[in-house]
Amino acid sequence: MTRLIILRGNSGGGKTTVAKRLQRELGYETMLVQQDVVRHEILRIAS
Questions:
Q1: Which residues are CB-contacts of 9 (< 8 A; sequence separation ≥ 6)?
Q2: Considering the domain boundaries, does residue 5 fall inside one?
Q3: What is the pLDDT of residues 3-41, one digit of tens each?
Q4: Overall number of domains in the chain
């Protein structure tokens, strides 16, 4: 089964900590993609 989990929240709210914990618990086939990668590399939006 393929899943997409999106974490949102304020700066310093613990999103990265939660994402890394989920990645460990869900296993090796889990990919963590930072917002900047989506914005710059996938959507080609300049900063």
A1: 15
A2: no
A3: 888 898 898 999 999 999 999 999 888 888 888 888 888
A4: 1
